[in-house]
Design brief:
The structure holds 2 protein chains of 2 kinds. By secondary structure, chain A is mostly beta strands. Chain A has strands spanning 3-6, 11-14, 19-21, 23-26, 32-38, 44-50, 56-59, 62-65, 75-77, 86-93, 100-102, 106-111. In chain A, the strands form 3 sheets. In chain A, strands 2, 5, 6, 10, 11 and 12 form a 6-stranded mixed sheet that branches. In chain A, strands 3-9-8-7 form a 4-stranded antiparallel sheet, with no helix packed on it. A two-stranded antiparallel sheet of chain A has the order 1-4. In chain B, strands 2, 4, 5, 6, 9, 10 and 11 form a 7-stranded mixed sheet that branches. In chain B, strands 1-3-8-7 form a 4-stranded antiparallel sheet, with no helix packed on it. The chains are: A mainly beta, B mainly beta. The A-B interface holds A 32, 34, 36, 41-46, 49-51, 89, 91, 93, 97-105 and B 6, 32, 34, 36, 38, 42-44, 46, 49, 51, 59, 90, 92, 96, 99-110, 112.
Chain lengths: 112, 116
């Protein structure tokens, strides 16, 4: 079945450091890929998405490129801020349009 | 515009007590509705989803049940809570068109349930 694997956290960075959170997936066909963010005590918010190979999703300085050849969708940001501290979830939607499948989530902690 | 509401935001319940969490969506018709659970330190687990009134699919056998009595209302219930039911419960909605075009789901703000 479909699955998403994220790098384990927590990831701890200093402010203005470069961020990469790895995400790889297993799926049949051509799923859509997503990054969601969960700030402390809140629900999930869609951060960015990509619907086909080589698409780059971007939002709030974050970006991720849909790489079909490596089945990856790594999240990057050039300069993180303390306010980026949150849990980040990679997800994919399967081809029948139901059931978003999530990775386990990666905790990001940014220190000032 | 579409909105999704979940309540209560936090809940502390004793073991063996019943549970009812409610989720409602406004501004759309015939949404697909989802209940997810996030246990402490763990990822998101899909519990139930519904593509229409009275239609419930269960992803994981458990102590919980779901119902959809109205088009935009999704209820998560339990007759007798267990300690292991503690977690953060999230409701989400989408539509077939939004899913087809890769818009993902929109989540509510969640209910933090602590069973004591």
């Amino acid at each position: 079945g479909n699955s998403v694997t994220q790098m384990e956290g927590p990831v701890t960075l200093s402010e203005e450091a470069f961020l990469t959170i790895n995400c790889t997936y297993t799926a049949t066909g051509y799923p859509s890929l997503f990054w969601y963010v969960q700030y402390p005590g809140e629900g999930l918010q869609l951060l960015l998405k990509a619907t086909k190979a080589d698409d780059k999703g971007s939002n709030k300085g974050f970006e991720a490129t849909y790489r079909k050849e490596t089945t990856s969708f790594h999240l990057e940001k050039g300069s993180v801020q303390v306010s980026d501290s949150a849990v980040y979830f990679c997800a994919l939607s399967d081809m029948d349009g139901n059931k978003l499948v999530f990775g386990a989530g990666t905790i990001l902690r940014v220190k000032s | 515009s579409q909105t999704i509401h979940q309540w209560p935001a936090t809940l502390v319940q004793p073991v063996g007590s019943p549970l009812s969490l409610e989720c409602t969506v406004e501004g759309t018709s015939n949404p697909n509705l989802y209940w997810y659970r996030q246990a402490a330190g763990r990822g998101l687990q899909l519990l139930f989803y519904s593509v229409g009134i009275g239609q419930i699919s269960s992803e994981v056998p458990q102590n919980l049940s779901a119902s959809r009595p109205q088009d935009r209302q999704f209820i998560l219930s339990s007759k007798k809570l267990l300690l292991s039911d503690s977690g953060f419960y999230l409701c989400a909605w989408s539509t077939p068109d939004r899913e087809l075009y890769g818009y993902g789901y929109t989540f509510g703000s969640g209910t933090r349930l602590t069973v004591v």
